[in-house]
Every structure is written in C-alpha cells, then in structure tokens.
Amino acid sequence: xxxxxxxxxxxxxxxxxxxxxxxxxxxxxxxxxxxxxxxxxxxxxxxxxxxxxxxxxxxxxxxxxxxxxxxxxxxxxxxxxxxxxxxxxxxxxxxxxxxxxxxxxxxxxxxxxxxxxxxxxxxxxxxxxxxxxxxxxxxxxxxxxxxxxxxxxxxxxxxxxxxxxxxxxxxxxxxxxxxxxxxxxxxxxxxxxxxxxxxxxxxxxxxxxxxxxxxxxxxxxxxxxxxxxxxxxxxxxxxxxxxxxxxxxxxxxxxxxxxxxxxxxxxxxxxxxxxxxxxxxxxxxxxxxxxxxxxxxxxxxxxxxxxxxxxxxxxxxxxxxxxxxxxxxxxxxxxxxxxxxxxxxxxxxxxxxxxxxxxxxxxxxxxxxxxxxxxxxxxxxxxxxxxxxxxxxxxxxxxxxxxxxxxxxxxxxx
Length: 414
Ligand SMILES: Cc1cc2nc3c(=O)[nH]c(=O)nc-3n(C[C@H](O)[C@H](O)[C@H](O)COP(=O)(O)OP(=O)(O)OC[C@H]3O[C@@H](n4cnc5c(N)ncnc54)[C@H](O)[C@@H]3O)c2cc1C
Description:
Radius of gyration: 22 Å
Strand content: 25-35%
Number of strands: 27
Strand order of the largest sheet: 3-2-1-7-20
Bound molecules: flavin-adenine dinucleotide
Largest sheet: 5 strands, parallel
Structural class: alpha/beta
Distance between the termini: 30 Å
C-alpha cells in the first residue's frame, strides 16, 4: 500500500461512513473519496421512523460523524453526486457531473431503496415513502398536522411508522395481505403478538387484504382495498420492503443476484472491488449460503471488514445477523436467521410484553427475539452460533439462565 493509492467508496450511508473511518484508523494514507447521492453527510436511518420522525431528536443527533470529521481525516466527501458508470478493467467510476475517478480499490455501499407499489392512483399527492431524512421531514410535517393515515405494509417500516403516528395522536389504519404484521420475519405466532400491540394502541389492523386503488382528485383522500373497503385518509405511507440499489454494479459487470454477490471477505466478483451493507448478498460460512441483510448492525460492521480487506487483510464477515425495532414502549432485538422452523418456544409471558421468543429446528436455536428484556443478546447469539442442542423446557424456564444453556459465553454482540 502506498500513499499514492486512491480508494473510492460509492454510497455515503452508514456502511460507507464506517468503512472510511476504518481505513483512516487502520493507517491508510492515500486519497480517500466517499461519494454520496444525497446532500447530507452520512446519517443513521433507524431514528427516521422513530424519535426523529416524532420530533424528539433533531438532525444533529442522527449523523454518523461530526461535521468536521471528514475534513479532519482527509476524507473527500463528494455529496449530491451519483456514480453512474463503472469500468473495473481500468478501475474507473464515472459520476453524474461528467467527471470521474480512477481507483485502486472500490467499495460499493449503495444501500437499498423502497419498493414502489404499482396500483391505480399511486401518483396522487400525499402518498409517501420513507427512506431518507427528507422523506422523514415530509412525514413529520404530516404528523404535525394530525388527521388520519393509512399505512400500506405491515413490515418493520410500516409497523414503526404506524406506532409513531399513533403516538402523535393520528388515526392509523394498516393494510397488508399477510395474516399478521411482520409475518415474513417473525411468522404468524409472534406476528400476532405485534398485531395485538398495535390494536391495543388503537391502530386498525386490516390484515389479509391489499390495496386495489388510491383515489382522490389531486391528493389522495381514499384507499380502496382488495376486499372492497373504502378507507378515508389525509395521507398514505407505503412501506412494502426495499430493493438493493444494484444499478452501478450491474453496469460494471459485477455478479448480482438480488444484491451484489460477495464472498465472506466482502469481495465482489471483480478483484479489488468490495460491497457491504444493504446492497451486499454475503456468503456466510456459518450458514453455508449467501444472505442479504437489510439492517443497521450489518452496515455498521460490514463497512469496517470491507475496509480492512481493501488494505490487504482477509477478515471474514460471519456475525450472527441482528436487528432491533422500537414500537411504542416495546423494544425488541432479534438475533439469528430463521426462514423455516419447526416451532417457537417462548420464555416469559407475551401478555406482559416482556418475553423472549426462540425459533427452533430440531433441538437447535435458529433465532431469538428478546422483547423488553435487556442484556441477553450475547447468550442468544451463543445459543445460535454454537449450535448447542437445547431442551425446550429449559429454554422456556425463567429460572434457567440462558448462559447455562450455551457452552461458551464469549461476547459477540454489539
Ligand atoms: C426509516 C428506516 C428505519 C430503520 N430502522 C431500523 C431499525 O430500527 N433497526 C435496524 O436494524 N435497521 C433499521 N433500518 C435499516 C438500516 O437503516 C439500513 O440497514 C442501513 O441504513 C443500511 O446502510 P447502508 O449504508 O448499507 O445503505 P444506505 O443507508 O441505504 O446508504 C446508501 C447510500 O448510498 C447512496 N447511493 C446509492 N447509490 C449511489 C450512487 N450510485 N452514487 C452515490 N451514492 C449512492 C444513497 O443515496 C444512500 O445515501 C431502517 C431503515 C430505514 C429507512
């Protein structure tokens, strides 16, 4: 490595910012350029559906780094710039202003964007999506005005927006074809607990039906559902999942399947080109397969691993997937990956909103979710990563410490 080298990071979100920070911390002395399509320096997105959306914290509290950080560390932050072309044979990224950059190593952290819904009337005013801080500002202003909102989609974003809108006193209806909220991630049994939490807070949960059309003259005023209901509203928020931003990678000939395919070192199909965060579909040695994780913890930790490997190391990214969500006074953390399971074992009483749910296959724990129970992420991750055989009764028994179920108890969580 020489100080004449240029490392370019495309995507100034959390993964890109943490990678830039790590490169300097690890002693990279060359030119370091961080390119971001947004006008803002890197910020954290989780508050955008929670405390920032509700007006409880301001803009300064969501940034990843202080304003002076990038200049102090000689990181060239090019904001409001989109990378539009990639030539990996010569190591060149083209930008939307017609200029471009030669690179010696490239990291793609272009993240994800909301999936768009295609139904009649979707172009009406007052139909909102949430990904960026500006989206959150627009939505916050709507919450300030009050009234009623229909939230389309009962995934994480939809559920959190519904909770924040209720907390701000709006009338909230959630519409989703699934049988319960968060069904894809948590299954019907645990999803039903979240349905009850929202219902208890006065949200109308219209499950098992989708949107047929949005109606109104210039602005949306009604949502027509697939089962024939007509819901009056002042505005609509759509949260029907995200898709990875892979346009640049595809243009540059990187292998893409859903996200950008990377190995356990976060290297793409092209030497010297790495990807991390929401956009990366990563090979996990532990799972023996590629997985794309769309959560904060993954962006936080993949950025630094990619950075170290850009510097010639061969670190492996193999952290147990982890995410969190806050809705009303219900805080949860989820560790692991459960796509198919035999059964769910619950420790504690869900009615008290303080419990841990475990997803199991055979006698192994695939995933665990602690709700309003703190400091258990490490032992839950240990149960998963050690693949220890567990007994359902002991797992559910509040008198048996989780640490006593896992053979090793080394810290591995954030
Ligand atoms: C409202 C909201 C709430 C969330 N809450 C939680 C939560 O509670 N818990 C949790 O675990 N996760 C949460 N997440 C998910 C988490 O924020 C993401 O996993 C994380 O932001 C991913 O970071 P990233 O750096 O990979 O991508 P992003 O944050 O998407 O950043 C990518 C950046 O790259 C830029 N970009 C894209 N293409 C180009 C290009 N060609 N040229 C230049 N720049 C480009 C984009 O504009 C963007 O700024 C939430 C997400 C949202 C939107």
